[in-house]
Design goal:
With 473 residues, this protein is an alpha+beta fold. It folds into three domains: 8-108, Electron Transport, Fmn-binding Protein, Chain A (Pnp Oxidase, Chain A); 121-272, no CATH class; 276-322 and 368-467, no CATH class. It is 34% helix and 29% strand. The protein contains 13 helices and 15 strands. The strands form two sheets. It has a six-stranded antiparallel barrel with strand order 1-2-3-6-5-4. α2 packs across α3 (259-274) and α2 (200-218) packs across α4 (279-289). The longest helix has 25 residues, at 415-439. The protein is globular. The termini are far apart.
């Protein structure tokens, strides 16, 4: 239970699949920092109401405040609310039921001027987690008179859609405690837009894609945690919590793209990304390139490799290289003939288990091999990988693909192999990043995965020696 004063305490209605519960007192605790959790407490529930809510996987909530004339002045709503904690205390006079819940889409609307028409312009901002590539650069200037001024020297602006331009800035806030005051800043994307063109669903979708590319460039996840907007008629705040919040929230200094090149990179890459089809596969790869949390080497290997597979599948679909026989009727006819051949062959005719095991492998025959598809993919996008540990080629030693297969099949690694596995994972990540840059049409020479930039790293120079540490079958 939260032992602090709620931001709102208001009577509301809870809607569950089993029915509606009216006149419930709801205490809302809003985040002091953007990344803090949101909590709703219900502490006056009857046992019947408590049971009705607890039997629901999710529920919605609606609260409103009216003025003396009966007009609605404020609404607080959430379509998806999940139970966080629940308890019951038995007293001599009865039972006291307590329930804490967490919304994923809390919306607070304040109606400013009754029924007056909206202004022509909407003013607002999106709330973002830290990203050093989007931070404005400011200089603190102190006068001999004691006056302090902050001068903006760099402020990134980006045209997200034809209607929406974003300006990235820092919002300064503070939290007062008993003994002191803590000040901090939060990254926001400010906007001014004609009210009639304000389409939040479209804008959030485009913003999430923009932030995915930005996160890739920064090598740290940046997400939108909500937004606020004022149009003269309403002031709206929406908290997004149906997404994973990155564990690491500090500005990263290990960028893939240099700060001085970022504005050119994001303008170039975002335009190319919008024309990709299907974008979902490349977007999935971008998310896998920057995970939300720290991973083990084994799990990181899986994540990175699956991201590469998503990029190769993107290429397969665009170049019609998924199947050898695209005509399914031709494939079905061939498969039928092949199964008949296997059944009649003297090595299989008397053993139904061998036939079944072989039949199960037949679908793989119609797919272009991953090694071939990856080779064609790198050639199509002119991705330079000759200086890195080979992904599929095993002519001179174990490939990264084979290492991944060993991990999947639960194979054990010796101490020397485990040490070399760190180097293999780094090379796999560099291949992945170069592959994404290839699709986005950005030269690796203007990134930190160029041969020149990697050349100072021991794992880049000595991978052939590390490769020898793995036993070969």
């Amino acid at each position: 239970m939260i032992n602090k004063k709620p931001d709102y305490k208001i009577t509301g209605t809870i809607n569950t699949k089993s029915g509606k519960i009216d006149n419930v007192i709801c205490s809302f605790f809003l985040p002091k920092r953007l990344t803090d959790p949101i909590e709703i407490n219900f502490d006056n529930l009857t046992t019947q109401q408590s049971n009705q809510i607890s039997h629901s996987f999710e529920f919605s909530i609606y609260c409103e405040i009216r003025d003396h004339s009966g007009k609605i002045r404020q609404t607080i709503t959430a379509d998806k609310v999940y139970i966080k904690d629940q308890s019951s205390t038995y007293w001599g006079f009865g039972t006291e039921n307590y329930l804490a819940a967490e919304p994923t889409d809390l919306k607070i609307i304040n109606f400013l001027n009754g029924d007056e028409p909206k202004n022509e312009e909407s003013h607002g901002n999106f709330w973002l987690t830290p990203c050093n590539l989007l931070n404005p650069a400011k200089i603190l200037e102190r006068s001999y008179t004691g006056e302090v001024k902050i001068r903006m020297v760099r402020n990134l602006e980006f045209q997200l859609t034809s209607d929406l331009q974003l300006s990235f800035n820092k919002r300064y806030r503070y939290i007062s405690n008993k003994d002191d005051t803590i000040s901090f800043s939060e990254l926001v994307a400010e906007f001014d837009i004609p009210s009639m063109k304000f389409n939040i669903d479209l804008f959030l979708n485009n913003l999430d894609e923009f932030l995915a590319i930005t996160s890739f460039a920064a090598r740290t996840r940046c997400i939108c945690l909500g937004w606020e907007n004022e149009d003269g008629h309403t002031y709206t705040k929406v908290y997004r919590r149906g997404i994973s919040i990155p564990e690491k929230m500090k500005d990263n200094e290990n960028n893939l793209i240099n700060l001085r090149d970022f504005e050119e990179f994001i303008n170039h890459s975002y335009k190319i990304f919008l024309d990709l089809d299907p974008k979902t596969l490349v977007l999935e790869a971008l998310y896998r390139a920057v995970p939300f949390m720290d991973q083990t080497i084994d799990s990181s290997f899986f994540t990175i490799f699956s991201g590469i597979e998503a990029l190769v599948l993107f290429h397969r679909k665009n170049q019609h290289r998924e199947f050898i026989l695209d005509d399914m009727d031709e494939w079905k006819a061939f498969r039928k003939d092949l199964e008949a051949f296997i059944k009649s062959h003297n090595l299989f005719s008397a053993d139904s288990d061998k036939r079944r095991y072989t039949y199960e492998k037949i679908p793989e025959l119609n797919r272009v091999s991953f090694g071939t598809a990856f080779k064609e993919f790198t050639e199509f996008y002119n991705i330079y990988l000759q200086d890195l540990w080979p992904l599929t080629d095993q002519k001179e030693g174990i490939s990264l693909s084979e290492i991944r297969n060993r991990i999947i099949h639960g194979d054990t690694f010796s101490r020397k192999e485990r040490r070399a596995l760190v180097s293999a994972k780094e090379h796999l990540e560099w291949i992945f990043e170069r592959s994404i840059l290839g699709i986005l049409g950005w030269s690796i020479n203007k990134s930190y995965v160029s041969p020149q930039k990697l050349g100072i790293m021991t794992m880049y120079r000595d991978w052939k020696e590390d490769r020898k540490e793995f036993k070969t079958s």
